[in-house]
Amino acid sequence: MGFSAKQVKALRRNLDHRSIRTREAAGRELSYIEGWYAISEANRIFGFDGWNRETIDSRCVLARENRGSFIAVYTARVRISVQADGTTIIREGHGTGEGRGASPGEVHDTALKAAETDATKRALATFGKPFGLALYRSSKSPSVEPNRIVHTLATGPERLGSHPDDTTPIPRPSRYYGRRQHPSLTEHLRKESAAFAPPLVPEDSHQRIPPLGKNEIAIAQPKRLRDKAHLKFVASQPCLICERQPSDPHHVRYAQPRALGLKVSDEFTVPLCRGHHRQLHQAGNEETWWKSLNIDPLAIAKGLWEQTRPRSASDGASVRQVDGHS
Predict the structure, then answer these.
(1) Checking phi first, is residue 147 left (phi over 0); if not, alpha (psi -120 to 50) or beta?
(2) pLDDT higher for 192 or 16?
(3) Cβ neighbours of residue 72 under 8 Å, at least 6 residues apart?
(4) Residues 114 and 238 in one domain
(5) Based on the number of CB atoms within 10 Å of its own CB, is 226 exposed (0-12), middle (13-18) or buried (19 or more)?
(6) Where a domain ends, among 91, 115, 137?
(7) Domain boundary at 137, 169, 188, which?
(8) Is the pLDDT of residue 94 over 60?
(9) Domain assignment of residue 33, yes or no
(10) Would you say residue 270 has pLDDT above 90?
């Protein structure tokens, strides 16, 4: 084993429950970790210059077009190389990705990135629990760290003989199982839910509590402006990194708080070529990525936005506002 004692300790550490995400698939709730989180953990444990990712093979297995709507499916195989005490540890993983949309180029790019990310997560998972391997334990006794809760996964015949390289998301445990095994945890969650529960209204009361209007919400909603003319202008600019063209209008994700299914406002966009745009999405921490290049994207985005304001006002270009509730 070429890993240091500190790295071995980190690889044995259980997965933080806050990094687990869920989604619905075929009527089931599946648990997984996001690709950026896996890359961030690799940088933290192995070091930014201590590991390398290489796409060994990628191919398009399906490409269709139906009335202007495109779909593409890719498979990819990724190799992870980690430098540890003078030795190179190599792991590989395969994955699939799907893309749908009205632009064939964007659809293929999305599907390829998804396949590479899936393969990367599968390869990294073979190193240990911090990369999602802890999600697939067959033990009925969950691992609980101080101030951490790790989901115990349901067991059954479908998990027998599974290989560590198999990182397909699997269903989370039923609520009944958690209550039966951990009554203290159930009681804690019950008290926590009660603290946020709305006040009860007596059954004989005929008073109705009017719903809050959008303007009555205490937390101000950030403005998210949409301007197609501005995005077209940003795309006409050279890439900030290599000055190549054409460029993609990249939305700086940390410019505004996250909103479900919504990008940040179009005023926070900068031009990136397709190669650097893909590299940024694979980096994980976008703010750190920009700092490593000594570039302030928000200042550049502000300058580009100010350049298009007089033109938008003169030609009557429409700027619409989108909020987090639309």
Answers:
(1) left
(2) 16
(3) 60, 62, 63, 64, 98, 99, 104, 107, 108, 110, 111
(4) no
(5) middle
(6) 137
(7) 137
(8) yes
(9) yes
(10) yes
Retrieve residue 233's tokens: 């202008």
Helix (H) / strand (E) containing 289: helix 286-292
Residue range of the domain that includes 234: 224-322
DSSP SS3 for 124 = helix
236 occurs within a structural domain:
yes
- Residue 249: CA count within 13 A, CB half-sphere: 21
Output phi, psi for 270, to 5 deg. -135, 155
Helix then strand then coil, % of the chain, to nearest 5: 40, 25, 40
Evaluate whether 250 touches 289 at the Cβ level (below 8 Å): no
First to last CA, the chain: 53
Specify the 3-state DSSP secondary structure of 28. strand
CATH number at residue 132: 3.30.390.80
If one counts the domains in the chain, the total is: 2
234 and 127 housed in the same domain: no
Q: What is the per-residue pLDDT for 301? A: 92
pLDDT level of residue 159 (50, 70, 90 thresholds): very low
Structure tokens at 168: 């397909």
- The candidate with the shortest Cα–Cα distance to 116, out of 81, 169, 75, 82, is 75
Query: Distance (Å, rounded) from C-alpha 268 to C-alpha 260?
Result: 18
Q: What is the mean pLDDT of residues 66-73?
A: 90
Q: Which residues contact 203 (CB under 8 A, 6 or more apart)?
A: none
Q: What percentage of residues in the chain have a pLDDT greater than 70?
A: 66
The CA angle 309-313-317, to the nearest 5 degrees, is 95
- Average pLDDT over every residue of 158-170: 42
What is d(CA 29, CA 25) in angstroms, rounded to the nearest whole number?
6
Is the backbone peptide bond immediately before 246 cis, with ω within 30 degrees of 0?
A: yes
Burial 228-265 (b: 16+ CB within 10 A, else e): eebbebbbebebbbeeeeebbbbbbeebbeebeebbbb
